[in-house]
UniProtKB/TrEMBL annotation:
Keywords in alphabetical order: Cell membrane, Disulfide bond, G-protein coupled receptor, Glycoprotein, Membrane, Receptor, Transducer, Transmembrane, Transmembrane helix
Gene Ontology biological process terms in this record: blood coagulation; phospholipase C-activating G protein-coupled receptor signaling pathway; positive regulation of Rho protein signal transduction
Annotated organism of origin: Mola mola
GO CC annotations on file: plasma membrane
Transmembrane portions of the chain: 29-51, 58-79, 99-120, 141-161, 190-216, 237-258, 278-295
Keyword Disulfide bond: yes
Listed name of the protein: G-protein coupled receptors family 1 profile domain-containing protein
Family designation: Belongs to the G-protein coupled receptor 1 family.
Membrane topology, from the record: Multi-pass membrane protein
Disulfide bonds: 97-177
PROSITE patterns according to UniProt: G_PROTEIN_RECEP_F1_1 (PS00237), G_PROTEIN_RECEP_F1_2 (PS50262)
GO molecular function annotation: thrombin-activated receptor activity
Length: 356
C-alpha cells in the first residue's frame, strides 16, 4: 500500500518481487496448468450436474455453485498469465483490472463458503439423518444459501469494485494490477484493518472451523458404526476433502494475515511468499471435479457414459456373460466326451450323475 503513483515509496521487497523473473515464471506455469485442467474438468462437470443428474438435491446444488465459481476463475486466469509474463505490466485498463481481481477473489472465498455448506449438508445427513429428512426443504435452503454466500463475499470485497487497482511505477516502466494498493482506496487505517481481517476471519477462518468440525464429526460417526466398504470410502473422502481445503486455502490466508499485520504496523512485506501461496490456492479448482467423481456414484456413471466407458451395471453384466460363456464352452467340451461316460454339470447343480 502506498500513497499514489506520483509519489512512489515502494519498499525493496516489493520492488525485488517485480524484478524476480523466476517467481513470475513459476506463477505463470502454475496458472497455465490450472487453467487447462480447470476449464476441461469443470466444463464437463457442469454439463453433467446441470443436464445429466436429476433430481437436483441440495448437494448437487452446492456442487453446481462450486463449479460455477471454479469456471469463473478458469476464465480469469489467462489474463493473469499474460500480466505475469509481461513482467507485472497491466495493459487492459483500470476497469478490467478491478473486474478480474474481483472475480479472482470471489472465486476463492465463494469456494471456501460452498465447501463449508457441503460439509454442513453432509454432517446433517449423516450425523442427524432423522431430523433433516426433508429433501425439498433442504433444496430451498441450499438455493438460498448460495445467494447469501455470494452476497456476503461481494459485500466484503466491495472496495475492489469501486477503486482503481492499477498503479504506475515509472522506475520500472510498468503498471501493476492489484499488486500495489493505494491508501486512499479506504478512508483510514482502521478501515484497512477491517477489510483485510474480514477476508481472513469472516471468509476463511470461521468457515474453516465449521468445515473441520463437520467433517471430523462425519468421520467419527462413520467410524463408530459397522465398517463397510461404502463407509470406508466415505471416511476417506471426508479426509481428502479436509486435506484439500486445508492445503489449498490455509497457507494463503495465513500469509495474508501475516503480511497485512507487517504492512500496516511495521512497514514490512512478505508479498512474494503471498503471491506464490495465492497461485497454489487456485489448485483447488482443479481438484473439485475429481472429488465429485469419487463422491458420487451417479456422477461416475454419467461421466463414464459420456466418455463411452462401461458403467458399473454394464460391467457386471459383461462379467456375468463371460462367466456364462465360460460354462457354456466347458459344457460343449464335456459334451464331446459324453461317449467316454462324462456328463455336463451346469453351474449351481448340486446333484451328480453316475458315470455311464
Amino acid at each position: 500500500m502506498t500513497e499514489n503513483s506520483s509519489n512512489i515509496k515502494l519498499d525493496n521487497a516489493t520492488l525485488s518481487m517485480f524484478d524476480d523473473v523466476k517467481t513470475s515464471m513459476t506463477i505463470s506455469i502454475i496458472y497455465m496448468m490450472v487453467t487447462a485442467i480447470n476449464l476441461v474438468g469443470n466444463g464437463l462437470s457442469m454439463w453433467i450436474l446441470l443436464f445429466r443428474m436429476s433430481p437436483k438435491t441440495a448437494s448437487i446444488i452446492f456442487m453446481i455453485n462450486l463449479t460455477l465459481t471454479d469456471l469463473a476463475l478458469g476464465t480469469a486466469l489467462p489474463f493473469q498469465i499474460a500480466y505475469q509474463l509481461q513482467g507485472y505490466h497491466w495493459t487492459l485498463g483500470p476497469g478490467m483490472c478491478s473486474f478480474l481481481s474481483l472475480v479472482f477473489y470471489t472465486n476463492m472465498y465463494c469456494s471456501i463458503l460452498t465447501m463449508m455448506a457441503i460439509g454442513i449438508d453432509r454432517y446433517l445427513g449423516i450425523v442427524w439423518p432423522m431430523q433433516f429428512r426433508g429433501t425439498r426443504k433442504r433444496k430451498c435452503i441450499a438455493v438460498f444459501s448460495c445467494f447469501v454466500m455470494w452476497g456476503l463475499v461481494l459485500t466484503v470485497l466491495h472496495p475492489l469494485m469501486t477503486t482503481d487497482l492499477t498503479f504506475d511505477i515509472p522506475k520500472l516502466g510498468i503498471t501493476t494490477c492489484f499488486d500495489v494498493l493505494k491508501k486512499n482506496m479506504l478512508p483510514n487505517q482502521l478501515a484497512w484493518a477491517t477489510f483485510l481481517f474480514s477476508m481472513v476471519f469472516v471468509l476463511f477462518l470461521f468457515p474453516f472451523c465449521i468445515t473441520t468440525f463437520c467433517y471430523v464429526s462425519v468421520i467419527r460417526k462413520l467410524a463408530s458404526d459397522c465398517r463397510t466398504a461404502k463407509k470406508q470410502r466415505a471416511i476417506r473422502l471426508a479426509v481428502v476433502v479436509l486435506l484439500v481445503f486445508t492445503l489449498c486455502f490455509a497457507p494463503n490466508n495465513i500469509l495474508l494475515l501475516y503480511h497485512s499485520v507487517l504492512r500496516l504496523f511495521y512497514k514490512q512485506s512478505i508479498y512474494t511468499a503471498y503471491k506464490l501461496s495465492l497461485s497454489f490456492s487456485c489448485l483447488n479448482s482443479c481438484l473439485d471435479p475429481f472429488i465429485y467423481y469419487f463422491a458420487s456414484k451417479d456422477f461416475r456413471q454419467k461421466l463414464r457414459q459420456i466418455l463411452r466407458l462401461q458403467s458399473l451395471v454394464s460391467a457386471d453384466s459383461m462379467r456375468m456373460e463371460r462367466k456364462e460363456s465360460m460354462y457354456s464352452n466347458q459344457c460343449t467340451f464335456e459334451g464331446q466326451e459324453r461317449e467316454q461316460g462324462k456328463l455336463c454339470l451346469m453351474p449351481g447343480t448340486s446333484q451328480r450323475k453316475e458315470m455311464e
